[in-house]
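[READ THE FOLD]
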Amino acid sequence: MTDGRERAARPVGRRAVLLGMAGALLGAAGRKGAAPEPKPAPSTTSPSPTHTGAVLPHTTLWRPGPAEVHPEVKRRAVDLVAAIGAWPSGRGGASAARARVAAQGLPTGLVAQAGPLLPSADEAVLQVVNAQYGGILADSASVLVVCRQWTRHGGAVRAGGTTVDVRLARSRSGWTVTALHPARPGPPEASPPGGVRRTLADSRIVLPPAAEADLRSGRVHDSVATAMLRLAGTYRMYVSVVRSGHPLDVFGTSRPSDHPRGRAFDVWQIDGHAVVDPATPRSLVERFMRDAAAAGSYNVGGPVLISGGRIRNQFFSDATHHDHVHIGFRT
């Protein structure tokens, strides 16, 4: 019997986290990865909206800040996703994508695993919203690259996007990508329940494309939408992952994760403050974690190890959760 907790096996030590935070305090405190998303942004209530006109939005380069645990791992994952999911006019298709991947010194067979990241289009731009760890161990990692994508088809621009679970391994020459697992949320329900509709309509809950599609699919437990709405009464939160695009098991273990079962969500930014940014008040993160527990979560993880809780081990902290708050539910 498993307890479903999201704590990864043998995580990178707390010393690595503290050293990363110290380095950030000596350098720039702002997080490059927290840049505003490009405009026009896709609607949060309409999947894959189409805009007339052929102008694609301007996007910005996502880069991890110095407070990250092993920032080079995230950089490697993000660069690959951007290479596959964005291309100029006339450079679409798998063959051109393989050339871009080969230029990064990575296996071209990864392109066959890209799925929704490589749609048919005349050209595409991609904005990485955030990259968070699905797991980080000494010699392997999972980076969840959350992105929005705009594609041009003739004179029309379509907005979409996905989340990709990028798997990496450490070799003698550094970190290399070994596999891609894009989100596959499933088709939307014809009539989502009221809690889901309220969640989708709440401007204080910012959902990336895959997370929004998860809620629309009907494969997420009511506890998730209920907790989101309750937290939105106090905070504006940026969700990174709900169900799809997350490892099936807690990374480095054989224990099923709560995410694929529709019983968890992750938050990477609270009231405009990135969780990973050392300039973010720890009191804000701690208060948010406690409020998440009060909203019904049995399993709250984040960068701060806090005491208390109504049940044993309700809160946890490790290197994987240094960059986001995990909020899990039993049902």
Summary: Confidence is low (pLDDT under 50) at residues 13-47.
